[in-house]
Amino acid sequence: MGLNIHMSEPVSGTAGGIAGYKFVLACLPVAVSLIAFWLGLRFVPVRKGREREDIIDRVMACVVSSFVVGIPALVLLMQYWPGAFTAGEQLAIRATLQPVTGFFAVTGCVLLLSSIPGPWLVAAVFLWLERRKGQDIGQIIGDVREAAGKVVGGADDPA
What we know:
With 159 residues, the chain is mostly helical. It is 75% helix and 0% strand. α3 (83-94) crosses α4.
């Protein structure tokens, strides 16, 4: 009168599939953020002697860029490609999670990807301001108007 218990291996069974979906869903935003951080440090190394301040500046620039670029990107994604959110919800359902988890996974990835250009944009603005050191606000506004005129109207033709 022995017990006859048969268990399938977790990888080929339903539990393994659910665990795989949960793993992908949980790791995707983390992987994207690590790649973004690595790219930032790879191409623009931290300044020697100011490592802590430089890292804080980069993180804050990423947060600002995430909101300034990420929110419009999410609105456009919802408007023109809503299937991305449906796919995220289906992934969450298959992982036996609430569908809103998939929505947040897609949203998190978009916000993280949109934070990548933040440090470069902030650095470009500060470099532009550094080059105008010693000018008053009127001269800086004149420079902005001149640059905007070149962008909107095209470069002046010297001929």
